[in-house]
Amino acid sequence: MMMVFCENSFLSYFPNGHIFQPSDASGVLLFIMTGKVLLNVFLLCVRRQNLHQSFMGYFCISLALLDLVLLVTMSFISHFQNFMLLGIRFTKYHTCLLAQITAFTYGILHYPVFFVAGLDYYFTFTQPLNSAAVCRRWLYTATVAFTWISALCYVLSLPGSAIGLDVNHYNSAYNCPFYISSQTYWFSLGMLMIMCLILILCWSEIVDTVQSVKVITYESETVLFFPYDPECSPRDCAKHLLARLLICFISTWVPFVLLQMLIVLLGAQIPAFIEMNVPWLYFVNSFLIAITYWMRRRHLKVTEETLEADPFVSWKFCLVPFRCQYIDKAQKSTSKIVMC
């Protein structure tokens, strides 16, 4: 089986991306993938076990599993370097080839994944699914599998981009071009612009909220408590809710917000197979949840499942009004640090 992997033709179908070529591809790939897998596992272990099942949660687990499989496969090929399997000779070139296929596949998935996740929250927050948990698990599993298969089939079916297993391609010149997607850049820029716009429009509400916020413990959680609950018009109440959501989001993800600001300002070029990671997905997940809460605030079904949708941010204290009589009870609860 002899096919040719044409980099220029492949890239021409991704006009918003470009190629980055490292010098020592094999070692760099294994080092990066090891760090990425460890980071994925760490985030999945420290996350809060929430009640709400979601498309994004299942997609994060699938991404972590695929990264682990990719790391094991690349390590196996790099260790043996030159061996035959099913009539195909594998070399170090195929380590790069796997990373290239992964990069192109990951690079086109950001917009579809965020769109599906947004739709999932938009409908389930207002009309929680009454189907059994098993049915929901199968639905999300099938959707995630369809997403991955569709993206991979699209990448492999591009004209002039047949992925070949030709060892001679490696012997000629060992370059390992990595695809750099622009989807994360534009999405990060959009998120930062939205946050800046909220800061401008709700500056007075944010200042009042920050001045009155208290850190308390409630039901074994250390949370941000918002005693500032004025009598206001629907428009002003919407602005106060938006301010509380922004404060909760930034207080949890401030390192990631600063990182996105640096990436956007510096125009950092990050290969697509690195950009698609579990921390990034959960960061966007919290943003999508906050946007959905605000957009559907009048029709939101305030249930325990809805309020526990985020594994990292506790939104319930932004949505459920607390009165002064609950403060004493909250302060007497045992503490377990969970940043709001």
Detailed description of the structure:
With 340 residues, the chain is mainly alpha-helical. It has two domains: 7-181, no CATH class; 185-331, no CATH class. It has 15 helices and six strands. It has helices spanning 7-12, 25-46, 55-80, 92-107, 110-124, 133-156, 167-172, 183-201, 203-212, 234-266, 272-275, 278-295, 304-307, 316-319, 325-331; strands at residues 18-20, 83-85, 88-90, 178-180, 214-218, 221-225. A hairpin with a 2-residue loop joins strand 5 and strand 6. Helix 2 (25-46) packs antiparallel against helix 3. Residues 1-13, 18-23, 160-173 and 322-340 have low confidence and may be disordered.
Short description:
The protein has 340 residues and is mainly alpha-helical. Helices cover 63% and strands 6% of the residues.
* Structural class by SSE content: mainly alpha
Strand order of the largest sheet: 1-4
Shape descriptor reads elongated
Residue fraction in strands: 5-15%
Order of SSEs: HEHHEEHHHHEHHEEHHHHHH
SSE map:
Elements (H helix, E strand, L loop, with lengths): L6 H6 L5 E3 L4 H22 L8 H26 L2 E3 L2 E3 L1 H16 L2 H15 L8 H24 L10 H6 L5 E3 L2 H19 L1 H10 L1 E5 L2 E5 L8 H33 L5 H4 L2 H18 L8 H4 L8 H4 L5 H7 L9
Antiparallel strand pairs: 1-4, 2-3, 5-6
Helix pairs in contact: 2-3, 3-4, 3-6, 3-12, 4-6, 5-12, 8-10, 9-10, 10-12
Could you list some keywords that capture this structure?
340 residues, mainly alpha, 2 domains, two-stranded antiparallel ribbon, 15 helices, 6 strands
